[in-house]
Amino acid sequence: MSIVEKAVQKLKSQHPDETSSPQDVEAASSPTASTLERAHERMQEVEPVESTAPPWHVDMKHLERRGLVPTEVDAMRRLGDEVRRVKRPLLNNLGGKRSGRLAHAERIVVTSAVPGEGKSFTSLNLALSLAREPDFEVLLVDGDIPKSSISHALGVEDKPGLMDLLVHKDMQPADVIVRTDIPNFLVVPSGTRHPLTTELFGGHRMEHVLDTWEKQNRQRLLVFDSSPLLATSEAQVLASHMGQVVMIVAAGRTRQQELKAAMQGLNESQYIGFVLNMSRLQASESHYYDSYYSNCYSAMASE
Known about the structure:
By secondary structure, the protein is of the alpha/beta class.
């Protein structure tokens, strides 16, 4: 027996409990599955880092010039009353006041059958009105990639947005959120156009992004301004992720067959409501349309 072997044997006899086999060493140095799971859970529970950038200024005068908010005080007051009629059923669905539990009720998309019906006007004013609710934070997402009306109106068209987030998987969902100087009002720009918008909207990454935005704040509502349902292929895919759909119907312009065609791609489990836009009638005099869960909410006037 060599001197080294004798020394090892002597150490074993003196400290039998401190020795271990190579297998024991390997097992001790490798974390167990449960340890990995706990570590992963802790990583998921870490709150997102708040941006230190100053809030983005929302230029209301610029919105007035673009016709997205009224210029007169009386018109603004009337609009406020009409938007309250629009948002109340949406908020009721969040609290489960209607029969049954509505899946993804916190996801709201504003769309139309064809262009020119006032959906961006409605989505912006709806989001601003929801942000005034004391119990919610609103994330307005520009999902109308071809036009990006919301991004241009708010001056964030050059910032990274939804499409960049879907394409670049190293980006985090919080990276594209723009916090504004309006309390509880956040914006996600449309981002860089991409030829595979429809496919990106339908991918797993999209659902992951939506889930992450929701989990960052349990009181957050997601409001999407979408392309018209009959104008782009991605609009139907985007709407499929939503729990609530607000359809804009332009008085004297939207054809019945166009509306029916747009409705065919929606899900019967969704809450679907209509806003009669550009009507000269008072809200109490406007016609009501039935669809699935809902009725027409209001008659909103816009330029």
